[in-house]
Amino acid sequence: MEKNARRRSDKTSVRKVVRIRPGTKSIVLGVTGCVGVFRRLPFAYGAYVVVALGAALSYPVTPQPLASLPRYELVLFPLFMWGTTWVRRRRIAPQTIAVSAVLLGLFTAEFSTWHFVA
Known about the structure:
By secondary structure, this protein is an all-alpha fold. Helices cover 75% and strands 0% of the residues. It has one domain.
């Protein structure tokens, strides 16, 4: 019995170590996009993204410091401009549009039934 309890606690500790914080994906995508913006778009767009991300990251909230980062990244239009060029260069535009349309339908259904969508 003690062996099983120890195994469960080992699995739990591994899950805690491997668990990714909610805002980590957003910051990785934001920094990747920022590098792409500097490489493919004019300097002013890259500077705008750096300043906007810097402002969002400069004053972290204690319980969840990166929780609102996706909201601040959504208004950074150079990231979308770079994403569009990235998709077109890889010629995956039809697949991207199809996935976006399916997600739009799912999120619309959730929103119309008063579920939280974010």
